[in-house]
Design a protein that fits this description.
By secondary structure, the protein is of the alpha+beta class. The chain folds into three domains: 173 residues, no CATH class; 165 residues, Orthogonal Bundle (hpI Integrase, Chain A), CATH 1.10.443.10; 65 residues, no CATH class. It has 23 helices and ten strands. The strands form four sheets. It has a four-stranded antiparallel sheet with strand order 1-2-3-4. Strands 5-6 form a two-stranded antiparallel sheet. The radius of gyration is 28 Å and the shape is globular.
């Protein structure tokens, strides 16, 4: 009790808090991975580190990466200086990928459990007066080779063994130890690539037929908005509120850097009418609720009050208890969303049970966005921007504004369900109009330049407009204000 009173609160999030005592920082996890408050919060002492903004960021990165899937690894990572050096390396020098740290932590714990020593003590044993001890280095290198060979004996694939080796080598490298592996020791990544592809509109229609309302909205938003699954599950109602409530189509969604994969920059994208309709129906269903009495037992969900911070896609298994307490229900996790969509692929008959690698994956929905917009004539840089990729023309495209991008997206006519589509020629005309030009004037100019031709075919018209469009885009990217001034 006395020790508890001496702890000082430094920072608190929705699942853990960082405390401080006279000797070190302490992480107290007070919620389970399912969002349930723990009766006995778990306390983990952090290895002595200076109290700074960077230290708090490293602790947050470590806890977030391991909290939901491998929470038992949190003490292993936080309580050793050498493992925190690895966390710092991934945080500063890489994209702060949570999955990378999770994989590295898993393999490191397995390796050190096999050796029966702690990471810090092993690293310390390699040095004498800050110099590497050659005998210790050879011994550790041999232990690493034996560990990786043992994984092969268990039947693990080359890629899995390569990932394990990379995690271990990176750990030692960031702690000043470069392993000297035998020249005969090789773990090669498999060169066989199992490329996934974008689904066709017909395949997506089949997928939607077997999906529930929530999953319909998720699938449509990934296909028509180009979202990564990890970003999609982090979206809140505030991201779509303005346009959805006003009936503006396509719906604009501004994605903050904090919820993107690399957290490099924010970006803007849109969802078309189909995705907006599914999303609206799903949200209306949540607002109405579905409680009923079945065999004398109350089942279903009570009406939910949707607020700005409500998750766009909630965790249905936990929603009821949160709503009854008047709290915002938790969102669906990335893993849950992945498994749901993968199961729907099977149910729709688009992938088989015995396949080693699947031609259609969750990420394939994002590929649909890219391939369809490319086929519809949207410039590649604009597509890359709306997918959140880093491109050299990022600032130029962003400076054009949301309405300019909305017009480009709307003119493409991107959709899922087969419908009467504009011809390639009409689609190109719409894109040119979206840039503020008159396609008919361009065609008249083309006819004047070639007076000997009595008739210009649709294919020739398309080529002429496509060439003009490319020139417009080139001028726009070189001089963003030029087109607006012409």
């Amino acid at each position: 009790m006395e020790a508890s009173r001496q702890l000082q609160l430094i920072e608190e999030t929705g699942m853990y808090r960082i405390l401080k005592n006279a000797e070190c920082l302490v992480v107290e996890v007070f919620k389970s991975k399912n969002g349930v408050r723990l009766k006995n919060p778990k306390r983990i002492e952090v290895i002595s580190m200076p109290e700074s903004k960077l230290t708090l960021a490293l602790i947050d990165y470590a806890v977030r990466s391991l909290y939901k899937k491998r929470s038992t690894l949190i003490p292993f990572i936080l309580s050793h200086k050498s493992t925190m050096n690895l966390v710092k390396h991934l945080f500063i020098n890489y994209s702060q990928s949570e999955s990378t740290l999770e994989v590295y932590a898993y393999w490191l714990q397995r390796f050190f459990n096999k050796l029966g020593v702690s990471p810090d003590s092993l690293v310390k044993s390699c040095f004498r007066e800050k110099l590497i001890k050659e005998d210790s280095l050879k011994k550790i290198s041999a232990e690493v080779e034996e560990f990786i060979a043992e994984l092969k004996a268990y039947g693990l694939t080359e890629n899995t063994r390569a990932n394990a080796l990379k995690a271990i080598k990176t750990f030692f490298a960031v702690n000043g130890i470069n392993l000297t592996l035998s020249p005969f020791f090789r773990v090669r990544r498999s060169r066989v690539k199992y490329e996934d592809r974008a689904p066709t509109p017909e395949e997506l229609s089949k997928l939607l037929e077997v999906a529930g309302l929530r999953e319909k909205a998720m699938i449509a938003m990934m296909a028509l908005g180009g979202f990564r699954i990890g970003t999609l599950v982090k979206l809140k109602y505030r991201h779509v509120k303005r346009d959805l409530e006003r009936g503006i189509i396509p719906v604009h969604i501004h994605v903050e850097a904090e919820i993107t994969k690399g957290k490099y920059h924010d970006y803007d994208t849109f969802i078309g009418a189909e995705a907006a309709e599914y999303l609206k129906l799903y949200l209306d269903w949540r607002k109405r609720g579905s409680m009923r009495i079945k065999y004398g037992v109350i089942v279903g969900y009570p009406p939910e009050k949707i607020v700005d911070e409500s998750p766009l896609f909630r965790n249905e298994s936990r929603a009821r208890e949160y709503i009854l307490r008047g709290e915002v229900p938790p969102g669906i996790t990335e893993k849950q969303a992945y498994e749901l969509i993968h199961t729907l692929y099977r149910r729709a008959g688009l992938i088989g049970k015995g396949e080693v690698r699947y031609p259609l994956r969750v990420h394939s929905l994002r590929k649909y966005f890219r391939t369809q917009l490319t086929a519809l004539g949207v410039p590649v840089d604009y597509i890359e921007y709306m997918m959140g990729h880093k491109i050299s023309t990022y600032n130029t495209i962003k400076s054009k504004g949301v309405e300019f991008l909305r017009n480009i997206y709307a003119a493409s006519g991107l959709s899922i369900k087969p419908r009467t589509r504009l011809s390639r020629l009409e689609m190109m005309k719409e894109l040119i109009r979206a840039f503020g030009y008159d396609p008919e004037r361009i065609l008249v100019k083309e006819a004047i330049m070639e007076p000997h031709r009595t008739e210009i075919s649709q294919e020739d018209q398309y080529k002429a407009l496509a060439n003009s469009f490319k020139e417009m885009l080139r001028k726009e990217l070189l001089d963003p204000g030029r087109m607006n001034n012409e």
